[in-house]
Amino acid sequence: MEKNNWYRTDLLDETEEFINHRTKEQREKLHDASGIKVLEEDRQRVKITRVDVNSNGAEEIGKKQGTYYTLTIPTLTTDDEDGFKQLGKVLAEELTTLHPYIKGNTDNKVLIIGLGNKTITPDAVGPLTIDELQNSVKPIQERCIIYAPGVTGQTGYETSSFIKALAEQIKPALVIVIDALATRASNRLCKTIQMTDTGIHPGSGVGNMRLEISKETIGCPVTAIGLPTVVDGPVLIADAVDTLFKSIAAKIHEKNSPSSALSVTPWRPSDTSNMSLDVLKPIFGEWSTWPKEERLQLFEESLVGHDRLFVTPKNIDEWVHNYAYLISDTLTEWIEST
Length: 338
Fold this sequence. Notes:
Elements: H1 16-19, H2 24-34, E1 36-43, E2 46-53, H3 55-61, E3 66-72, H4 81-98, E4 110-114, H5 125-134, H6 138-143, E5 144-147, H7 152-155, H8 159-170, E6 174-183, E7 192-196, H9 215-218, E8 222-232, H10 233-253, H11 258-262, H12 281-284, H13 292-302, E9 310-311, H14 316-337
Parallel strand pairs: 4-5, 4-6, 6-8
Antiparallel strand pairs: 1-2, 2-3, 3-7, 7-8, 8-9
Helix pairs in contact: 4-14, 5-14, 10-13
């Protein structure tokens, strides 16, 4: 089968090159061979991944040269106030790490842009954050210019053209762009924040790529803060089938296990990460042993001719409003502290 990359994702740590180098030893080799340096740490419940990509690494993985942060709380829920506070605290700390030159200079203006379509809930995190900032305290309004330009389909103009025109007049020290992203893993929906100093391609995650917003196109540093709110439909199917196959295979492998026989609670597989799926071939056929990527391609090809389907959580309105509060509060505190 001809292999195509069907995954749509805006998250750097979901690229194929990154996924194929998960262990510390593999990532050291990745750095030496491809110029991609990965640092990971935990701060309370927040899992932080920092990826530094040089020019060689950019060519290797198809992402721009620069620094990428991914902040994740896998167990986050919409009513998890403590989790949102921890995410906001880490986001502010890494903003300071990424832009130390902003601190201590009140003459430095910051242009904050909320990208997205306010009338489409999964895409509304940018405009809603701008709404929150406009109702914020006075110091951030003195230091920052806040703007939600809408989307090209509403205005008829490229969003990057609006931002470039503003930047030429204002001459900010930094542009911060807030937008919704696409992920390739359903379990990361609304539980991850990505921040990068490389800018952003609006709409790229859903196949509607507009002109780039970056230092190269705007003329000043651009940091993008993104929240994954949608996943491609076939990816969701592939995730479900992969989980199902691994669970069935695990049960077959462990059916004679003493621990399984003595269990008085509902059975759960102990580990499916390196589970052989060959035992499924007599039941489901050859395709059950294919790599997940090839099964995904099969689902995609089966849906040729149908409208592309993107999936978002049922309570996406709660998620988006929570993140609008989080990002606006974090930016306000960060600006006040600089």
